[in-house]
Fold this protein.
Amino acid sequence: MCGIIGVIDRNMSLMDGSSIREALSLMDERGSGEGAGYVAYGIYPDHADCYAIHVFFDNLVEPKSSVDEILQDWGHIVHQEEIPTYEQPGLKKEHISWRYFFKPDAELMVGTSNPKDEIVKYVVMRVNSEIEGALIFSSGINLGVFKASGWPEDVANYFRIEDYKGYIWLAHNRYPTNTSGWWGGAHPFNLLDWSVVHNGEITSYGTNRRYVESHGYNCTMFTDTEVVAYLFDLLGREHGLPEDIVVEALAARFWDEIDEMPEKQEKFMRTLRLTYGPALMNGPFAIVVATNKGIVGFTDRIKLRPMVVGENGSRLYISSEEAAIRVMDPDVESIYMPRAGEPVIGRVIE
Amino acid sequence: MEPLVIDAKGMHYTPLNKKIRSAVALGVKEIVINNVRGQRFIANGLRGHDVKITINGVPGGDLCMFMSGPECVVYGNTDHASGNTMDSGTLVIHGSGGDAVAHSMRGGKVFVRDNIGYRGGIHMKQYGLKRPILAVGGTSHSFLGEYMAGGIVLVLGIGREVSVQDRGIGSGIHGGEIVIRGDVDEKLLGVGAKKVDFTEEDLERLSPVIKEFCEKFDIDPTPFLDTNYSRIVPASSRPFAGKYTWE
C-alpha cells in the first residue's frame, strides 16, 4: 500500500508545492514514514536549457569528485550547488542533496538521434552503478525530484517544496514491502524527462529488468518501480510510441478482449503484445507517469490498486483517494474512477 | 435530545471516533459530522440500534467496519471497503462507493445511490437469519460479488441501457445471489457463476429490498417491480474444488 497523487495544469499555470504536500499528508496512513517524494516540472526556468542533475552524495569528497569528472568529460557544468534543505526533527539526514545544471556536448555521442539525452542517460547509469556514495535520482530538463526517507510532510518541509513552482506535480508516500526503505528507493523515480510514482508491486520485475538491461539500462535502486521509468524511456522516447500505446504495451489487454476487436485493431494489439511481451507488467499497480508534455495514469488490468481522477478547468488530478484531490482543490468539478488499464491522459496545451 | 454536531475539519480519525463513541455511550442518538475529508474507520465497531450518524463530505476507507446497529448516511462519495465486515445496521451513500464496498459483510444493508468500484460485495457471507444486502442504483465495475459466500447484491443500472458491462461477475461465488436489472451477457460471468431466470417468487422476495432502496433516495419503485432481472448464483458450492484440492 502506498499513496500517490498527481496534478497537471494544462495551461501550464504554475502551482507551488504547498497544496500537494497537504494532499499527500492526508494519505499518511498509506505509508510508513520510510519514503516520500515529489517531482515538479517547470521549476528551473533560469536554467531551462540545462539538464538538472540531482544527486545524493554520501560525502562531498571522493564520490563528488568522480561525478564532477564524468560530467566535465561529457559536457559543461553551468552551475552547481547544494540543494537547500531544512532540518526536520522527524527526518534523519542520510545524504547530501546536490544539483548540477549540465549541458552535454552533443558531438561526443554518435548512433542516436538525440545525443544529449543519450549522454545524460549514460552518465546516470554509469554513476549509479560505478560510483560508490553517489546516486543520481533526477536528470531531466527544467524539472526536479525531491525525496527522502520520512513522512510526506517532513520530506516536503525538509526541501521546502513550497518554494518551487511547477505546472505538473507528482507525489508519493511509500509503504515499502519487498525491499527496505532508503532515500534512493523513495518515489518518484526519474530518468531524463520521465518521472514515475507507483502504488503496488511489479511481480514481473525480473523479466522487465532483463529486458531493459538488454537495452543499456542498469537497475540499481533495489525496487521494482525503477524499471517502469526505464520502460517508459525505452518505449516512449527511444521507440517513439505515444503514451497511450505505451500503456497498451505495459498493461496489455486480455487475449479474449483482443480476439473480439475489429480485425485491424486486433492485428495491431496482437502485434504490440507479442513485440513487447517482455515489457508486459504483471502484478497489482496504480501508476502515474509524467513528462514535460503531460501526465498519464493507469492501473493493472484487474484493478488491484485504487485510482481516482478529478477535473477542474485546466487542472487534472489523479490520486489514490478522492479526499486527497479535494484537499488540493475543494471545488473540483468532476470525480470519477477510470476502468482498469484505461490510460487517463492530461496533456499541456501549447 | 439535540443532535451532536462535530466539525471534523483537519481532525484525525482517532479523536473523531473517540468523540462518536463517547457520545453514543452517553446516550446521544443523532450525530452530524461536517467537513469530513478522508478520515478512515468512521463508526468502526460502533453499537447502538437507534443511533443515526450523518456524514457530510468524503470519508476515508473502511467506513462502518464491524458496525452493529446504527444507521449511517453519507452525503458524498466513499473510499475503499465501506461496510467492511458490517454486522448489522444500515449505510446509505448519496454518491458513489469505492472498490470493495460491503467487503466481507455479514449482516445489515448498504445502499449506494450511484456507482461502485471493483469487487463490490467481495466475500459477503450469511448465517442463520443474518443476510447482508448491497444495493446499487447505478453500475458496478469488475468482479462484482467475487468469492461471495452469502447475502444479496442488487444492481439497478438506473439511467443505463445495460446495467453492468464489466467482466468477472460472481468470480468464485459459492453462496448468495447477485441480481442485476435487465439481461447480463454470459461472457461477463466469472468462474463458478451461472445465470438463472428471475422468477415471480424471486420478485416477491426482493421487492422489500427494491422498495427500501427507492425510499432512501426518493425514487418511484414502480418501474422496478417486475421480473426484468438476471439472477446470478453459484454453479456449485465448491467452485475451486478441483483447483486446490483433490480426492
The first helix of chain A runs from residue 18 to 26. Chain A has ten helices and 18 strands. The longest strand of chain A covers residues 96-104.
